[in-house]
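PROTOCOL LOG
Step 1. Enter all chains and additional molecules of the complex.
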Amino acid sequence: MDDLQDIQKSRTGDSDAFSRLVQRHQNDIASRMWRFTRNRTELDELVQEVFVQAYLSLRTFRGEAPFVHWLNKIAVRAGYQFWRRQAAERSKNEIALDGHDLPGGEVTPSEAAETVHAILQKLEPDDRLVITLLHLDGSSVTEAAALTGWSESKVKVRAFRARNKLKALMELEKQNERA
Amino acid sequence: MNELENFDRLCEAARNDAPPAVDVSGKVIEALAERAERRNPWLWAFAGVSSAAALFIAAVAIYIWANAPMAELFDLYVAVLQ
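Step 2. Run joint prediction.
Step 3. Record the structure below.
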């Protein structure tokens, strides 16, 4: 049973078909959402939210691109909204880089991801998203534009500004450490 | 190595960070079923209002029939037929 068949069946209310779609793609979506949170419970909730949103907008899937591409767009939107909610809930001052100084030597992927996550928390959601997509995921500008729904020029401008902010932020942190 | 280069190096290393295994298929189906149930109270309310309206119309019809306001008209019709 392939995606298109399961999508057709899901549209008619076949929950087994949609369950198969979830099982087939949940790990891809979890990889994506792991960029948005490092918390296991939040990860589960976000992945769940992506599939619920996908089910509710299944009628809009036209089948022009693979289903997983369409899911990834929903995932990026859900992650971005999650960051926006987080940003609204807490002030930037509450976030500290304590214990997340840039390690200089060899680091494990998990340590590197933790550190990057802690650094990016200091950025606004838009900046954080563009850096995550371009630098952490390694997406191209075109791919990032497709995932966010932004124009390519907006992605480029936002990425340039975000990197400058990131640089300033890290230099400030370094100065604070020295002081 | 400046800070941004160090950050890029970390990003590259972080790409290989695998997420924990997830299995949300059951929860997704549950969440969708809950949403559907949440919609049901409105359907029940609509059904209730419709039934009340139908009962009212039936009661009015029975009242009119019992008082036979057009009985004379029917009597006349019956007389013509006879």
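Step 4. Note key features.
Chain B has a mean pLDDT of 84.
The CA atoms of residues 6 and 31 of chain B lie 42 Å apart.
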